[in-house]
Amino acid sequence: METGKELTKILRWPGYAVYRHRVDERAGVVELWVRRKRGNRKLVCSGCGGKFEGAHDFTERAVRDLPWGVFRTTVYVEVYRVKCPKCGVKTEKVPLLPSKAPFSERFEDAVGILCSGTSVRRVAKQLGLPESTVRAIDLRFLERWEARRSKPALRQMGVDEIYLGRKQGFVTVVSNLETAEPVWFGRGRQTATLDGFFEGELSEGQRAGIEAACMDMWRPFRMSTGKWAPNCRIVYDKFHVLQHANKALDEVRRTEFFRKGKEKRELVKGKRWLLLRRWVNLSPEDRGQLNALFAINKRLFKAHMLKESLDRLWNYTTEDGMCGYLQRWIDQLRWQRLPSFKKLAAMLLDHLDGILNYCSTKVRLGVVEAVNGNIKAIVRRGRGYRNLRYLLLKAQHLAATKTEFITLQKTA
Description:
Layout: H1 2-11, E1 16-24, E2 29-36, E3 43-44, E4 51-52, E5 57-68, E6 71-84, E7 88-91, H2 105-117, H3 120-127, H4 131-148, E8 156-163, E9 170-176, E10 181-187, H5 191-201, H6 204-208, E11 212-215, H7 219-228, E12 233-236, H8 238-259, H9 262-268, H10 272-276, H11 284-296, H12 298-309, H13 319-331, H14 339-350, H15 352-360, H16 367-382, H17 388-401
Parallel strand pairs: 2-6, 8-11, 11-12
Antiparallel strand pairs: 1-2, 3-4, 5-6, 6-7, 8-9, 9-10
Helix pairs in contact: 2-4, 3-4, 4-17, 5-7, 8-12, 8-14, 11-12, 16-17
């Protein structure tokens, strides 16, 4: 009897007491049989939540609990069924048993925390469980976490697409710029895709409360946002604009590669990533290589300077200052014979309103790309995800808890 009391204190299942136990030292297993305490006689219907005194019948469930040291722990708990007038014969609601799976809630919480920092494959190997079982446990843990937490209001949103492979295709990602976490995933990147978010996930008041949306220049996103969020000001993401500048520079590099002779062509060859990197991030050796290249190719030098100087456009705080700098930047294209940059200048002028909106509506530039980077890291760690809901919860938990993945380094 005294041993049962001590084991009850160690187990710490509220409202339950250990009345029998078995320890197998060779197998490394601890088995505990528990039942309700005398003062814990109220049975709760799992359907409607009604409380009852008497039980219809009972059964015994075996669930895996947190290990005791090196011993794997199995708890056999008496689970009753109640005869509810509304629901019929229903199993009672046991807080420590969140589902029909043979695991306690605190065991699933521990598995979920492990999965947030490392791969499912490693957790499954550590616990001796199938990978599919660990994924199901992790999903239930994330669902409970999502139901308990308070969700912040969506005032500044980011919209972008991410490519998840040939089978999954493109997925539209809506993120909260203030909390830097994803809010919604949708398959495809059409106008109807984003319409589904505004219509199905947000109320009319929530749509009216969106102040700004940071996105690229993809027309379907602009059309859908303008239709459903009338008070929202569209701000084009700086990093997407600079990505177009990198593409223009790369096109100049390819043109100059084929235009130059064989000897000078060797200097251009293999310099793509040096040209695309920011000058401030280059080492002295890399800068020397680029200076040697610019000495023989003035057109490539001019294209690189135009790409680097475009970043200063977002340093201005007034629309007049931003327009003046953009005009001076465009004036530098005269007589340069850089068709790709002239095309870039025309695109900037066509989308000038979204660029100028940054002066009056400040948003956190780069959050959209940071969220996409986290999603890609999760996908690589999990070797792909078919369930978008699962992937969304993983990304939200990663952003909310600021979890860092465990990196394993191969030692020689």
